[in-house]
Amino acid sequence: MADGAKYAVFRCGSYDRIELEERLDVLLESCGGMGRFVSSGERVLLKPNLLSASAPERCITTHPELVRAVAVRVIEAGGKPFIGDSPGLDGFGSVAEKTGMAAVARELGIPCAELDEPAPLPMAEGSVFRRVEVSKRALEADKIINLPKLKTHAQMFLTLSVKNLFGTVVRQKKASWHYTVGLDRDTFADLHIDIAGSLSPALTIMDGITGMEGRGPGNGKPRHFGLLAASTDALALDLHLCQMLGADLKSFPLYRAAARRGLVREAEKIAGDFPPGFVFQGVDIPRLDSLHLLSFLPEGFARRHLSSRPVQMPEACIGCRKCVEVCPAGAMTMEKNNKVTIDYEKCIRCYCCQEVCPADAIHFSKGFLLKLLEALGR
Ligand code: SF4
Ligand code: SF4
User: Fold this and answer.
1) Domain for residue 284, yes or no?
2) Which ligand is nearest to the CA of 155?
3) What is the tens place of the pLDDT at every residue in 26-42?
C-alpha cells in the first residue's frame, strides 16, 4: 500500500473469533502487515465508533471482537494500544461496559479512556477550518488506528471512516459544532475532512461485518454486509464504500465537499475478494433533504419549510431526557407524561435528538416545500 489512495476489501462472515482473526490477518497482510503502521514502543489510539451505551448486537458501535483483534496485533508489533472515544451523551464508563470495550481492555491489560480535555489540533495544509480542538489524548498518541462502523446516517447520509474521527472532538464541543455548522451538511463535511486530514490516522479498518441501514446512526436496522476493509486513506475508502452500498455519490455530503476541494482521487483496490464493481442490493439509505438546492432562500425560512423537522412520539418515549440534554439549540422541553415539546423557531435541524434517542421515539416530518419539491420530482 505505497500510495494512500488504495484500499483492500475482504469478506468476513461473522464476529466469530477464529474467522475474524483469520480474515483480519489476510486484510492486514494485503496492506503490508501491522508492523508497517506501528513501531515498537509507540502509543496507539484505537478509535472505535462508541456512539452510545449499546450492546454490540445493536450494531451501533464497532464490535469488540474487531477492536480486540486489532489491539492484539498492535501489541504483537510492539505497540502500546489504548481504546478511546468521546461518546455523544452517555457516561463513558457505561459506554465502555455496554459496548464490550471495557472487557477487551481488562482482558488485554490496556487502557480504555474517554477522549476528553480539548486541545488545539494542528490543521493540515488546505484545511477550511483554522481552529478545531480535539482531545489531548488523541493528539498525544503516536499513531491512530481508526475503527469505524459502517452505518447510514440521517443527517450525513453515511457515517464511515472520515466521520468517525469527529469522535475525537470532546463531547461539549461537539454540540457547539452541531450548532454552528451542523445545519449545512456540506460545511459539516468540510469539518470532518479537516479533522480526518489533520489527525491523519495511520490506518483505517472498517467494521462492515454487520452494519446498519435505514434510520442510522442510532435507530436503524442491523444489516449483514460481511465486509472488512482497510486503507491509509479514509476518504478514498469512504467514497468506494458509498458506491459498494449502491448509494448515489452526489447525495453524499462528504463526496460533494471533497469534490469541491479537489480531493477526490482515483482510488485503486489492491486486494480483496468481492468481484469488481460489486454492489450490495436494496440497502436502505436515508434520503436527505434538499437544503442546498435552494440556497438563495433565507436561512430561517429554509430551515422551517425545506428541511424535515423532528417530531417526538410520547407513546414510544421512556422519559430518559437524553434528547433534551443533547439539543444544542435548547429547543426541547420535557413535559408531563413523556411529552417533549420542540420549539421549531429555535431548532436547527441537526437531528442530534434522533441520534441519541434509545427508544426510536424521534421521527421526522417533512416541511411543506420539501414535500412540494419531491412531488414535482426533484
Ligand atoms: S430539536 Fe433535535 S433537531 Fe432540533 S436542534 Fe434540537 S437536537 Fe437538533
Ligand atoms: S424522546 Fe427519546 S431521548 Fe427523548 S426523552 Fe424520550 S426516549 Fe429519551
Assistant:
1) no
2) 1
3) 999 999 999 999 999 99
